[in-house]
Structure formats: structure tokens, C-alpha cells
Amino acid sequence: MKCVMCKRGETKPGVTSVLLTRDDFTFVMRDVPAEICDICGEDYINGNIAKELYHLAEKIKDQGTLLDVRKYQMNAEHICSSIS
Ligand SMILES: [Zn+2]
Fold first, then answer.
1. Going from the N-terminus, what domains does the chain have, and what CATH number goes with each?
2. Which of 37, 63, 74, 82 is deepest in the core (most CB within 10 A)?
3. How much distance in Å is there from the Cα of 61 to the middle of ligand 1?
4. What is the distance in A from the centroid of ligand 1 to the CA of 83?
């Protein structure tokens, strides 16, 4: 699709890192599948994946963690259940 940020680039499937912060908690997810603009590098993450990441970040934050870095796995259900 056409990039809405620079309006010139085309997005291509790739992976990106997502950084979420809430209060003192920082959450980083690496290798998240996304559409990446070939000119400005803007990343577009699927809405369902974004929702999963927020959900997961909330869960980890509730454990009192301040920093968590992990790699995205296609089956996010698995990630969620592994830390509950
Ligand atoms: Zn762009």
C-alpha cells in the first residue's frame, strides 16, 4: 500500500520493533510482522497484533516488571499463557 506518512513510499512486508511505555514500565517486542515503507521506514502493524501487544504489556506490567524485551512469536496466545 501507499505510505500515508511520506505519501511517496510503498510499504513492503517486514519486521519491526515495537516499544510500549506505561508509567515506569517499558516493553519492547522485536521481530513484529509489519508493513514497512521503503522510503521513510514508517511501520504499519496489523491492528490485531497491536492489540495483542498492548494486552501482553498490561499483563507483564501487573507482575511489577520495569523492563521486558522479547521476540514476537506468531502464536501470541502462547506468549500470553506462558506468563500467566
Ligand atoms: Zn513513507
1. 11-83 (3.10.20)
2. 37
3. 32
4. 36
CA of 29 to the centre of ligand 1 (A): 22
For 2-42, how does the pLDDT look when each residue is reduced to its tens digit (9 = 90+)?
A: 999 999 999 999 999 999 999 999 999 999 999 999 999 99
Q: How far is the CA of 19 from the centre of ligand 1 (A)?
A: 19
Distance separating the N- and C-terminal Cα atoms of the chain: 37
Instruction: Please classify residue 65 by burial: count the beta carbons closer than 10 Å to its beta carbon, then call 0-12 exposed, 13-18 middle and 19+ buried.
Output: middle
For residue 61, count other CB atoms closer than 10 A to its CB.
18
| Half-sphere exposure of residue 3: CA atoms within 13 angstroms, side-chain side | 19
Confidence (pTM): 0.79
